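Before relying on records like the one below, remember that each one covers exactly one chain. Contacts with other chains, cofactors or solvent are not represented anywhere in the record.
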Amino acid sequence: MSELQGRQILVVGASGAFGNEFCTQLEAAGAKVIGTARNADSASRLQPQLEQRLLLNLEDPQSIQTLATYLTASQTTIDGIVLASGLVAFGSVAETSAADLQRLTQVNTLGQIDLVQQLLPALVQSTAAGRSPFVVSISGVIAERPMAGLSAYSASKAALHAYATAAQREYQKLGIRWLDARPGHTESGLANRAIAGTAPNFGVGMAVELVIGRIIKAVLDDEKDLPSGSF
């Protein structure tokens, strides 16, 4: 994809640090952006100039289906999907509850996969129109190097990375690219919003705008993968 001008991109988690920066940089590149937020409170943080501002709770399969049905029924063009939403939890295996593991897996893995699957027909239509559609997921360096004290989070992200890697091989036959990005610790504030436990001292992380800029450059340059060493 040599340009984003006029492309319509769905940014999941557009109210968060990563998602908000994706919206800013995609719009600066000429893209039209549809942004989602988890609920009415977080929706207040969505940028007012977005093409559409929608609700999507990845923990709720019905919410995923409702969004996908709406976009499909309204014949909304989708030229790209950016999965910029996620949860984190800290703690040993013994300290991690089954409920927290389930939430992490649903939001970081199953919900994201479900959404892309349901919107696959829209991406196929984008291919037919010659617009080179893509999916961007952010599994992070944790998918490459799982950490003690982050077993559940590591598992949810490693599963997303594995799915994206395999799906890319199938999607490329449909003219769709799935780019998985695995940046290291980034100052997004996610560690301070953990659903359980307390974050260890990660040290100073990378700047959000630089990480997102690198991912968008990869989209424009038709890169197929963004391992941690790319950041």
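The beta strands are 8-12, 32-37, 52-55, 80-83, 134-138, 177-181.
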